[in-house]
Amino acid sequence: MLTELKIEALIQREHAEERVMLRALKDCDLSDYIIIDHTFDENKDLSDKIRHSFWFPKQQVKAGDIIFLYTKSGRDRFFENMVKSTSYAYFWDIDSNVWNDLYDGVVLIKIDSFTSKYFKGNLTG
Questions:
Q1: Contact (CB, 8 A) for 30 and 67
Q2: Residue 56's closest CA among 26, 27, 88, 32?
Q3: Predicted local confidence at residue 122, as pLDDT
Q4: Residue 7 in contact with residue 69, Cβ under 8 Å?
Q5: Residue among 13, 23, 118 nearest 68 (CA)
Q6: In CATH, what is the architecture of 5-110?
Q7: Domain ranges of the chain
Q8: Strand pairing partners for 77?
Q9: CB-based contacts of 22: which residues, under 8 Å, 6+ apart?
Q10: How does DSSP classify residue 65?
Q11: Per residue in 59-99, pLDDT tens?
Q12: HSE-up of residue 106 (Cα within 13 Å, Cβ side)
């Protein structure tokens, strides 16, 4: 179970306002996290379909900070909110709603480690 960030809400109005709201429960680095949209079956079990992912950029946040991930295009920003913590707004740059089905949901993944490899031209390792 994650203890640094919590999914607070999924707001699914028209595309211009569709967003996920997270709250920082402890100080952490957002770049340790990925959000995915995920489908669930009628029993509310995760399916194996991952259609979109968003890996947060390097950003230290403090306990109490609010993080919004909008599906629309925009310019990432941060600002002091009404309760004197910081709110961060990130933009996924997707042209349509991501959460558009009854069984769609949000999954927040913490990355403890990963590996990657760049293949230039020839795709043989």
A1: yes
A2: 32
A3: 63
A4: no
A5: 23
A6: Sandwich (2.60)
A7: 5-110
A8: 89
A9: 5, 6, 7, 8, 66, 67, 68, 69, 108
A10: -
A11: 999 999 999 999 999 999 999 998 899 999 999 998 888 88
A12: 21
Structural contact between residues 88 and 66, judged by C-beta atoms closer than 8 angstroms: yes
Q: What's the full length of the chain, in residues?
A: 125
Residues 2, 47: Cα–Cα separation, whole Å = 20
Q: How many CB atoms lie within 10 A of CB 20?
A: 24
**1-36: pLDDT as tens digits:** 568 999 999 987 777 789 999 999 999 999 999 999
Q: How does strand 19-24 pair with strand 77-80?
A: unpaired
2: amino acid identity, one letter: L
The pair phi, psi for residue 97, each rounded to 5°, is -65, 140
**Alpha carbon distance 10, 19 (integer Å):** 6
